[in-house]
Each structure stands twice: as structure tokens, then as C-alpha cells.
Amino acid sequence: MAIALTIAGSDSGGGAGIQADLKAFSAMGVYGASVITAVTAQNTRDVTAVHPIPDDVVAAQIDAVLDDIAVDAIKIGMLGSPSLIRTVARCLERFDGPVVLDPVMVAKSGAALLHDSAIDALKTHLVPRADLLTPNLPEAAKLLGGSDAPLLDQVDALLALGPRAVLLKGGHGDGDICSDWLSIELWSQQLDAPRIDTRNTHGTGCSYASAITAGLAKGWRLEHATRVAHGWLHQAILRADELSVGQGHGPVHHFHGAWG
Fold it and tell me: Which residues are catalytic?
């Protein structure tokens, strides 16, 4: 059994964060372990409270999992402070498997989940450790200091920060086609899908990164894991309206291949 670990915040509404990560792992046929970095009071409309988990407790969770469970790949999501970023980076020094870093900064509702003061720490301590960095367009702009350069130039600039590969997600762009760019050193591929007219896209970034992590946990090459995750997520968004969860930005349908 392939095993993946998610290090992220909890979403009480169940659509993003730890909950979305574990659903994506399961949908992809991978066992999921978890380390919770924050507890949020959250639904499909808003984030009303964020309670960070103390750094030493996060470290204890990581150590407990890695001491006992043979984790094949790790996905990192919400990290709220520079000290927590440094703590997670230190804990992962003992892990030699693939790491997918989803630089979660803003919730779908617009609530800030990563303070600007933590961005430099993320770039210094975790981005160079990442085998794959998965920012959306607003997150890429923050990582690059507000850059509005052409997409491929942004990808190159993100690679220059030190990750082995970058997946720049185009969901926040315009047009009828949603385009993501996967770049590994000198190799790049554009992944296109028709844009879906739905407001139920809560947790897309978390789920996408976690589905890729699941593929890496199975031993798939990054290119293959990303293509499979891209197709799976497109169907999860396409089927999202069937769930009718909440009154705001509802979740994607993680288990579209199994029920619903």
C-alpha cells in the first residue's frame, strides 16, 4: 500500500485542507496520514477563526508519523508563520522522498492563510526542498514580489527559487480554456482543460497537489502523476454541483469515480 502524508490546516467544512487531502489520497487509492498545522472555523462562505497548532506539537506529529509509518511522499499545505515553516523544514531533513509544496496563502473566501512575513521564510526554507511547487497565479505573484510577467517567464523565475519542478496553475486566469504549466528544468508541458462554469471549486488547489502526491507515492513519474491528477480534478470539478454542499463555494467531488 502506497502511503502519503499531508501537513496542512484543518477545514471544518470538509472541502479543503487536511480533509480534502485525505479524500484525494483515498480517491487515488493511497493511504493517508496527516499532520495538522492549524484548526480553522470554516465553511463554504468564510473563514471565521484560525487557531495555529504550536510548533512543537506539529513537530511531534511529524516525528510520530515518520518514526512508525513508511511514508512514500509528502504534501505540504497551510503553514501560517515563519517559525512553523522552519520547524517543518527541520523535521523533513530526515525524509528523502518526494515533497509537493502547495503554497497556500488565501482561502477561496478571500481570507488570508499565510502572512506576508512568512513568504520569505517559505522561499528560504521549503521551496528549495520541494520536488514540486504548485502555486496558482496569485500565489506565484506573491512569491515573485508582484510579478505580472508572461506565464513562462514566471515559471522560469519560480524554478530559479530552487524547486525541482513547478506546476503553475491557471484556474484564476481568463478565457474558455484553463491552462496549467508543468516545468521540470528545461522541459515544459501545457495542460489544458475547458473552463467549467461552477462556483463549487473549494479545495481545488489542495486536492490537485494531493492527487499528484498520491501518484508520486505510488512511484509514478512526476509527469504521469500530474497528468492523471489533472484529469481526475477536471472530473471532480465537473461533477461538483451534484454535491450541493453549503451556500457559498462548495467542494469538488473527490469521489466522482466511486459514488454520486
Answer: 169, 201, 203-206
